[in-house]
Amino acid sequence: MNGIVTRGVRPSVLDTIGNTPVIRLRRLRPPDGAEVLLKLEYFSPTGSYKDRMALAMIEQAEARGALQPGMRVVEYTGGSTGSSLAMVCAIKGYKFTAVSSDAWAPETLDTMRAFGATVIVLPSEGGKITAELIAKIRAETERLARSDETYHTNQFLNADALAGYMEIGEELLQQTSGAIDAFCGGVGTAGMLMGVARALRAGGCQARIVALEPASSPLLTAGTLGPHRVEGIGMGFLPPHLNREFYDEARAIEEHDARQMARRLAREEGIFAGTSTGLNVVAALQLARELGPGRTVVTIAVDTGLKYLAGNLFGDRSSRST
Question: Is 136 a catalytic residue?
Fold first, then answer.
């Protein structure tokens, strides 16, 4: 670059994915409880930990020759995965089609479009995420994936996703010197929880791994399904990535508590994140009370609260309604 020193300059946005910070909860930590650490994945380019998964799936497919120039990438998504894939595809020059629904935040749909994605929006029943809705979205995606010159990233089955998420666990081992007594996270694809668990185990950390889900759709804990509004988790089926050998227990968290916690995180800790992050922190605080002083609980702030400003999570109605 004409002799200009470029130390610290990244080749592209893709090179900014990862190495997100970890912070201590100060005001929300329970008295006489364990320390609670939160890894702020909303520092990623699209404001979500899904950037890691998207990059891993695309680059591994390129390396195998399954994805080549001129092809179209397709995926069904509530928005965060779609935004991440749309960003990666924009940089790499691939066309991208996302199959989604009005059950998810309109900001995420608009984000995908801003990156140049084609977004197919299927209607929901009253804005609820249900097993029937997911089945319709999956079927439409599979129909599109049968077209020639199309690559289906298939996040729920794609083992490449785990490699992207293992980086979170590897970073946590470095950031905490391996001093983690419990790790908890919501289950959508289960890629994040399994990737982190595998990395912690490989690094010699025997942290208690806790899988989380909405109490209104307690498939893991009670074997039943129900509608909910916690985006990104509780998809209405057992995700293939979820391996019982890599988690110790499952917990169901009330959506009302998760939404209230998202508001408290913003107002009391300055952490601006969505309902799934609130759910993670509710569970982390439970574990902190159970483990007591001298222990450390870690969880993830999965995405930015900017994605949820159109709803009532952070609006004036939020103090009176869930």
Answer: no
Residue-wise pLDDT for 291-311, tens only, equals 999 999 999 999 999 888 877
From the candidates 50, 84, 216, 307, give the one annotated as an active-site residue. Answer: 50
Distance, CA of 246 to CA of 219 (rounded, Å):
18
- What is the torsion angle, in degrees rounded to the nearest 10, for the CA atoms of residue 81, residue 82, residue 87 and residue 88? 60
- What digits encode the pLDDT tens for the residues 174-218? 999 999 999 999 998 899 999 999 999 999 999 999 999 999 988
Q: Helix 50-64 vs helix 160-176: angle between axes, to the nearest 10 degrees?
A: 130
The CA-atom distances, in angstroms, between 300 and each of 26, 81, 175 are: 16, 16, 14
Q: Which domains does the chain have, with CATH numbers?
A: 13-43+162-316 (3.40.50.1100), 50-152 (3.40.50.1100)
Say if CB 172 and CB 298 are below 8 A apart.
Answer: yes
The secondary structure element, H or E, covering residue 40 is: strand 35-40
DSSP 186: E
One-letter amino acid for residue 286 of the chain: Q
- The one catalytic residue in 80, 84, 216, 276 is 276
For 155, 158, 254, the CA distances from 164, given in Å and listed in that order, are: 12, 11, 29
* Paired residues of 48 in beta bridges: 303
Are 119 and 112 in contact, with CB atoms under 8 Å apart? yes
Which pTM was predicted? 0.89
How many Cβ atoms from other residues are within 10 Å of residue 52's Cβ?
25
For this structure, is 217 an active site residue? no
Which helix (H) or strand (E) element contains residue 60?
helix 50-64
Token duo for residue 278:
């609130």
